[in-house]
User: Fold these one by one.
Assistant:
Number 1:
Amino acid sequence: MNPIDLVTKRVSPYAAEKRSTTYLALNENPFPFPEELLQEALKRMQIDNLRIYYDSPSEELVEAILQYVGADFITERNVSIGNGADEIIYVMMTIFDRVFFFPPTYSCYKIFAQALNVKYIELPLEEDLHIPEVDLKEGDLVFIPNPNNPTGHLFEREEIEYILKKGAFLALDEAYYEFSKVTYLELLKKYDNIAILRTFSKAFSLAAQRIGYIISSEKFIDTYNRVRLPYNVSYLSQLLAKTALDHVKIFQERTEFIVQERERMKDSLKAMGYSLTDSFANFVFVFIEKKKRDRLIKDLSKKGITIRSFDEGVRISVGTEEQNNMILKELEVFR
Ligand SMILES: Cc1ncc(COP(=O)(O)O)c(C=O)c1O
């Protein structure tokens, strides 16, 4: 078979859906990037930097990330950036022999592993959503989102350390960190086989700009920087990310609102009799069996509402108050 057909056969497709009016399927931030910060970034922008191959990461962005992260045990040599956390995930996969993940988990782990033709092993989470027992060795790379996507639940520290003690390299994907405020960053003090991944896509309303960052040992960051593309993140994306970090309070207040809305949605859905995970991200996860789920997705889509379906249930991103009320109303009628 020719290489193009081989890859097509191997790779599961991205969901290239047309946007519905109420799109709650990708865990985006319902707040637009603040207009005044966009203006500030444009004022700060130096036109000549568009002409050159601009540093990626720039020193000033790394400084801002270090300040935001606020850990005295990391320096600029422990930080790098990617074209979204997705690029970091993609690049990391090329470095190791085998990749492990535990479904239900972030769907791109499998999509990227298939695209790159790296050996991957999927082991489902246990029924109570804990990490299963797993045989690991040096050369293995394990992906764990914490909070998990799509369930939004948090793993316990012992589960994370269980992987680290086995000698595998752990990519701890904290894409939703701001909504849980739980981080295992300090494990970097104890282990050198861990990387923390974060993103500007969720809490900072910059998904379209494609920018995320990685924190790890100096040695691993050096390796990552050798493997990734040079100049991987644009000047404008870095400038917007830096401007966001300079005004972090705005985003923290918005995050608080989203968290309150998440809790309101969880409480309301529970009161309606739905079974939910305890999500600490910017979405809720409702267990619904397949037949009912398919009917729900179809009903909602007729009304211009899109949520995401998984084998175990549905994931609904927290939207604006109005959108959340709308989906709650629909689910009340549906039950
Ligand atoms: C767990 C997890 N990691 C990474 C990403 C991708 O982040 P980015 O937009 O920075 O590529 C997502 C996006 O939904 C995610 O859910």
Number 2:
Amino acid sequence: MSAPVTLLSGDNGSGKSTLIEAIAVAAGFNPEGGTTSFNFATRATESSLGGHLTLVRTPGRKPRTGFFLRAESYYNVATEIERLGVTGSYGGVSPHQRSHGESFLDLVAHRFGPGGLYLLDEPEAALSVQGCLALLLRIADLVADGSQFVIATHSPILLACPGATILEIGPGGGIEPVSFDQAEPVVMTRAFLADPARFLGRLT
Ligand SMILES: Nc1ncnc2c1ncn2[C@@H]1O[C@H](COP(=O)(O)OP(=O)(O)OP(=O)(O)O)[C@@H](O)[C@H]1O
Ligand SMILES: [Mg+2]
């Protein structure tokens, strides 16, 4: 994963979160999300894969900062941000007092900075189409400032991230690079939007 932005695609249960969590653990992040200094655990469910991964770093490119964002446990991360009294680094308002999407956009706007390693698991879970486009703009700025992103996503909009490498995990567990036009969420969304009735006809 040497590209500035690597997007992990694949069906539900294909292993994206397991992989991104293992990278996070190997990189020293809290398995439940947050920065490398977060050290809370509500329930240890991480796989042991992280202990078997060796991360290869470009010499002289140790991340200056970073964040592991997992949509499913951001509530607990928000509680930790409040407990540590560091809301100032997140836009000044506790994530608990913002909407789900607002709190994500606060995070990327205020806490993310140059030269960072950012591991994001389905950030689109909180975001509107506009929010996804705002995230793409912020990613472009941070990449220009030397940051690296690994993002698990089902979003055709995030898969359009310029210059990104898309790795798709197939049904057999194989990981293949694919183009934007080949990526499954793009193919399926295009087919659905071209003729919703064809898909929905089976429901009635
Ligand atoms: N704590 C766990 N213990 C055992 N198996 C697990 C655990 N968490 C997930 N799995 C299994 O590992 C497989 C991969 O799960 P994973 O969460 O990585 O998928 P995913 O690609 O992120 O899916 P989704 O798109 O639904 O988020 C699934 O079959 C899942 O049931
Ligand atoms: Mg997942």
